[in-house]
Design goal:
Blueprint: H1 2-17, H2 24-28, E1 31-41, E2 46-51, E3 54-59, H3 65-69, E4 75-83, E5 89-96
Parallel strand pairs: 3-5
Antiparallel strand pairs: 1-2, 1-4, 2-3, 4-5
Length: 100
C-alpha cells in the first residue's frame, strides 16, 4: 500500500512540475533590452510587441501577466527579454516610456 501511495505522489509531483515556467536554459540565455511598441495581449500568457518594425510574440511569466494585461494598446515600451533556443522570446521586464 505504501508503494502505491509513493508512486501516486511521484506522478502527481511530476505532473505539477511539468506546468512550471522555469527552465535552466532560459537562465543561461543572454538578455536583450530594446525599445518597441506594445501592441496587445494575445491571450493570458503572450503579448504582441513591435520591435525593430516587426511584430514579435513574447511569452509572459505568471508574475507579470496583470501588468501586461493592464497596458493600453500601442504604448511605447522598453522590453527586456531572453531568446530561447526554439526562438521563443520570454519577457523579463517591461517599462512604459513614461516610466523610463
Amino acid at each position: 500500500m505504501k508503494s502505491v501511495i509513493s508512486v501516486i505522489l511521484l506522478i502527481f509531483t511530476a505532473w505539477l512540475l511539468s506546468g512550471c515556467e522555469y527552465t535552466a536554459e532560459a537562465d543561461s540565455a543572454p538578455s536583450f533590452t530594446q525599445e518597441g511598441t506594445f501592441i496587445k495581449a494575445s491571450g493570458n500568457d503572450t503579448i504582441a510587441v513591435k520591435i525593430d518594425g516587426e511584430r514579435q510574440e513574447v511569452k509572459v511569466p505568471f508574475s507579470k501577466r496583470f501588468e501586461c494585461q493592464s497596458l493600453p494598446e500601442h504604448t511605447a515600451v522598453q522590453i527586456t527579454y531572453k531568446k530561447e533556443s526554439n526562438g521563443q522570446l520570454r519577457l523579463e521586464k517591461l517599462k512604459r516610456e513614461t516610466d523610463m
